[in-house]
Every structure is written in structure tokens, then in C-alpha cells.
Amino acid sequence: MCEPKHFTVEYTINPWMDPSQPVSTELAVKEWTELADTYRRWGHQVEFIQPQPGLPDMVFAANSGTVIDGRVLGARFRAPQRAAEADHYRRWFLDHGYRDVTMPTKTNEAEGDFTWTGEVLLAGTGFRTDPGAHAEAQEILGVPVISLQLVDPRYYHLDTALCVLQEATSDRRAHVAYYPEAFSPGSQRVLYRLFPDAIVANAADAECLGLNAVSDGRNVAIPMEATHLADQLINHGYDPTFLDISELRKSGGGPKCCTMELRG
Q1: Active site residue 257
Q2: How far apart are CA 148 and CA 186, in angstroms?
Q3: Is 157 one of the annotated active-site residues of the chain?
Q4: Could you tell me if 135 and 108 are in contact, meaning their C-beta atoms sit under 8 angstroms apart?
Q5: What are φ and ψ of residue 212, in 5° steps?
Q6: Active-site hit among 2, 163, 208, 257
Q7: What residue spans of 119-171 are helical by DSSP H?
Q8: Is the pTM of this model over 0.85?
Q9: Of residues 157, 163, 208, 258, which has the active-site annotation?
Q10: What is the pLDDT of residues 210-258, one digit of tens each?
Q11: Distance of CA 146 to the CA centre of its chain
Q12: Span 48-68, mean pLDDT?
């Protein structure tokens, strides 16, 4: 995670961002701190990278690396305003003992568009990540990749429209929640085939970035407005934790955007 010490909205690279609206860096830090504290209360270890001046979106750590079995695929951002973030995260990995670190040749915004299910890597495209990055991810990470087409610019990354609630194990399929209308008709059919028991979110869930959630298989960090989704989570045995992300959402981010998951 990266503290939003320099958080602001100075430019527009997604439909959520409006530089004419007031933004409170102090409130963003408060929201982010509560998210980090939530992970600690759940019993997880949280690592931090130093925020850098001039990179107001560096708080969205999910966009800068995909880590599976200790192998790291870095990021290559589409927006020039965020390009410098990638190398700061690359150096963090090397400084923290990761040796299998590869920087991509194709544009990919990491866990923004790459979501690990425990069996396959779901890979989004349509607004940020180059379709060619899907094949590159498969080659570098050594896991099977399934491409999904995003069609609604509000849900510009896969992690705004789909959340893995439980990763697959040897005796259990992965369980996900997603918003069908964010995907092309073909991708909707793929998701239904892969996850017939998925939780299906509604428009209100999606519009508050309710699917930009983080689950450890039991606890789920979700925006406080995602009440319909929360009810479904409870019905499926999960324990949702409601969080205020109203300030971070002004830049199009939520709990997952702020969280890179380090696997292995």
C-alpha cells in the first residue's frame, strides 16, 4: 500500500475524475489509514511503499504489479501522468528480496486488469490494458489467462467490475462477484460458464465502486454504500466490512485499487 500523502485530482484519465471539484488530501489519508488498519485487524501483514511527490495516483498500488507465486510482472501505464509509478514499484520489489521481476513491453495496469482466481488469471481489456498484454502475462507469470472485454468507460479496469471472493483450491472452485453490464455479451457468457454460482451485483453496487473490494475468503472490505452487495455477501457466509472511500473515489479508486496483493 502507498499512503495518499500527495493525493489530489489534477487531471482526468477516467470518468470519475473532475479537477474542478474540491479534494481533501487529509480525508483521503484518513480513509486509506482505516483500510490499512482493517487489514491488520483481520490478521494480515501490510507492506508500504514511500509516496512520491508529483504522483497523486500512486496510492492505487494495485495498478503497479501482479505477483503470483513470488513472480512479479510490473506495470506499463497508458496515461503518461502515471508512467513514473512503475519504476518506483519495480525498485521496491528488488529492495524487498524479489528477484523474478519482469517489466512488460505491452501496456498493462497490473491488478487493475489482472485478477487471480487461484486457477486462472482473468484479464480485462477495453480501456487501459493492451490485449497483447494478456499473452505476455501468461508467458511471464506461467498461468493460464482468460481475456474479458470491458465496455462501460465507468468501469475502466476489471477490478471495478469484478472481485474474487474466494480463490480456488484443490477441492473448491473460485467464487466471484461481478457486474454483468460492464462486460461484452461474449465475456458475460464466459463469466457465467466459469462462475455459475457467482454473486451478481446490480447497478447501484457498481456505481459506488462496490466491486472494487478486497476479500480474504471470509472478510470483505467494501464501500459503505454497497448495501445490496453486502446483503448478498452475508447470505453467502462472508463478513463485509464497510469503509468510507468517498474521497478516494473522486479519482476512481476504492479498497482494491489501494491494495496490491503479494502472493507467495
Answers
A1: yes
A2: 8
A3: yes
A4: no
A5: -85, 60
A6: 257
A7: 132-141
A8: yes
A9: 157
A10: 999 999 999 999 999 999 999 999 999 999 999 999 999 999 999 999 9
A11: 17
A12: 98
